[in-house]
Amino acid sequence: MSRMTRFAAVTLASACLGNVLAEVLRSLRDAYNTDFSASFYAAADMLRRGNDAIYCSSCLQSHAEQLFHTGPAVFSFQYDNPPLGAWLLQPLTHLTPEAALACFLLASLIAVGAAAWLLRSHITHDPRRLLIAVLAFASFPAAMTFAYGQWDGFLALAAAGAYVALGRERQFLAGLLIAVLLFKPQLVWLVPIVVAIAGSWRILLGIVAGGAVWAVSSIAILGWSDTLLWLRQISPNIVARTGFSLPHMLVSFGASSAVVVAASATLAMSTTVGLLIARSRLRSLTGQQRLSLGLLVSMLAAPHLLSYDLIVLAPLIILWAVDHERHALIATLALSAAFLVDLTLPLSWAIVEAPALLAVGAYYCHDLLSSRGTRQAPAELAPYAVVARELPTSAGAR
């Protein structure tokens, strides 16, 4: 790197890391306006006190007003995550909301650091990859997970673990870790379709086993009736605000929840057909590449996606940089730039991030299609043995 290039890289990295710190401090200063306090903490406190009505919006808001001694205007969110999330947070409700939020944010920062550590072999060989890792994990949209006290830092750790497990051919473990992301199903809802078409049955079995844990724990915590209430409420609620998946973006144009969900289902079916047509190519990809493809199509077609969810793509970008440093760098810069542009626009027209994410997905798929060969797992080599001897292997599975 030239001196000017190093200066620019250090400036960019410092800006991103400084922004993360600023968002943490802003979150702590205005704790009652975070998702953590208004939704997660309040729901966890209800469970601790024996009140299972965490998916009753009016009940949650009433409890929050009594708990925090403040008016209802602050509490504009209802609890939408699986019951297990609120159940796990119960010990924090013995602390004040500010102290509980501080513990949660500290744990989130540790989780992101652990995710980077898991991928250290892909980061530490080159200063440029270190820069890409910082810009991915601490991008401007990713930093919003700390601003709102969201769960995505932990989900990024699960995604990183899944990539590492796939790199070591621990497919069932990878499936279990992918299932952790079912905490926000919209992030991985098409991944099972990708791995099924690719014939990765052990990964699929791990995802199913992990999904069963979510289902059983929900029923055990709430019972059947309240679990069904959760499933009925999340569909209309999650598409109520503008987001930046392709269907979610339609909210800015006045689309109803039904239209957004229909658009999401249409994209999912179209993607499935496309994957079936290209299944021979899909099966030639590595497990890590299949997961990356599944994450991207899941997010693009999701009925609900917000800025802080992009931190889950950080491991994908780091692995992408192994073979395509410039493309990965452009991708993470584009996502941060789009986020900053959206900040300057009226809320209902903050839709620049959607086409930016689409461009990143298209760029990644272009690199997959232009790759002349992929590294196969030992069990998958036999059908491709002749081809593998003739074509150069890709470093994508390292």
Write the layout of secondary structure elements.
Blueprint lengths: L2 H27 L5 H14 L8 H12 L14 H6 L8 H22 L8 H11 L6 H4 L4 H16 L3 H10 L10 H7 L3 H22 L1 H15 L18 H21 L1 H5 L3 H15 L12 H10 L1 H20 L8 H18 L14 H6 L8
What does this structure look like?
The chain is mainly α and 398 residues long. It has helices at residues 3-29, 35-48, 57-68, 83-88, 97-118, 127-137, 144-147, 152-167, 171-180, 191-197, 201-222, 224-238, 257-277, 279-283, 287-301, 314-323, 325-344, 353-370, 385-390. Helix 10 (191-197) packs across helix 15 (287-301). The protein starts with a helix and ends in an 8-residue tail after the last helix. Residues 373-398 have low confidence and may be disordered.
Q: What are its keywords?
A:
single chain; 19 helices; 398 residues; globular; disordered C terminus
Short description:
The chain is an all-alpha fold and 398 residues long. It is built from 19 helices and no strands.
Task: Please estimate the helix content.
Answer: 55-70%
User: How many β-strand runs?
Assistant: 0
Query: What profile does the largest beta sheet have?
Result: none
Shape: globular
Low-confidence stretches: 373-398
Following the backbone from N to C, one meets helices and strands in this order, namely HHHHHHHHHHHHHHHHHHH
In terms of DSSP E residues, the strand content is: under 5%
Please give the radius of gyration in angstroms. 21 Å
- Chain-averaged pLDDT: 86
What's the total helix number?
19
The class by helix and strand makeup works out as mainly alpha
